Amino acid sequence: MAQLDGKVVLVTGAGRGIGRECALLAAREGAKVVVNDLGGALSGADEGEINPAREVVGEIVAAGGEAVDNCDSVAEMAGARRMVEQALDTYGGLHAVINPAGILRDKMFHKMDEADWDAVLTVHLKGSFNVCRASINHFREQGEGSYVLFTSTSGLIGNLGQANYAAAKMGINGLSRIIAMEGALKNVRSNTIAPFAWTRMLASIPVKDEASARRVERMKNSMRADQVAQLAIALAAPACDVSGQIFAARGNEVFLMSQPRPLRGMTRLEGWTPQSLIENAFPALRGSMIDLGATESVFTWEPV
Q1: Is residue 283 situated within a structural domain?
Q2: Which of 92, 133, 157, 220 has the most other CB atoms within 10 Å of its CB?
């Protein structure tokens, strides 16, 4: 049985990469799809090219599905509202939003300028707010709706040169969590996915040494966008009752990620001072502290 029969799904950034695979799979699973993609470069700049969303719509229609393209920007609330209105006007409904749209402007933090910070936060975090805010009341009124938002291990674990991206992606986890909590009584769900997949976003990361080259080649061959799409469509499906969670998708592996909870506590009845914290508390807690290793120090094995 198709998981999205009779449903309408909006997929952002759906002209390429993970978004494209989500749109194609959603259609194969029976959904009518609004295929959104602004087009342009990975940095967010306009390249003046034909919008790739139309190509994805063509593939869906050629395979017997239903889809319509949309060229608005998730970074603008007016654009997000037009996406939702297009779904309602074209197909008479909207049941899920899958939002992998994003850009990269990587730079070490001490070299990062305000424009690079603002651009990434606007597309990723503000963009997630925009598409959710534009659709939330419709979901609540119909008593059904699912958000599949995208986080990153760059935020969950850490990655050099991505302070802007990491901050935005961690913010999305907080947004998703509150949407899930507030939407529980209205059957509105929200989850996030940290994807491992070879896309033009990963292809843009500089390869500086032999170890990096091997890691990139491994990602290219073993972690595909269509594998991430399987999890995204499952979370969007009405048969799924999962909400408020953070997942990672890596090749054929799916991980449920931890969320911040107290690891260990210490009490001093007379109260703490800076000196007693430095001399007593921090040494006692050190064994439970998280090191500064990047993502590859946590996922140390080959993708399956």
Answers
A1: no
A2: 157
Q: How many domains does the chain have?
A: 1
169-222, pLDDT tens digit by residue?
A: 999 999 999 999 999 999 999 999 999 987 655 555 566 777 767 767 776 778
Whether residue 95 is contained in a domain is answered as yes
- Spatial neighbors of 252 by CB under 8 A, at least 6 apart, are 227, 303, 304
Torsion angle of alpha carbons 197, 201, 202, 205, nearest 10°? Answer: -170
Tokens of 199: 């896309």
Q: Annotated active-site positions, please?
A: 165
Q: What is the CATH number of the domain that holds 200?
A: 3.40.50.720
Domain that holds residue 158: 8-260
237's CB contacts (< 8 A; 6+ apart) are 3, 4, 29, 96, 146
At 122 the three-state DSSP class reads helix
Predicted model pTM: 0.92
Residue 268 belongs to a domain:
no
β 253-256/246-250 pair status? antiparallel
User: Per the structure block, which two tokens stand in for 160?
Assistant: 């050099």
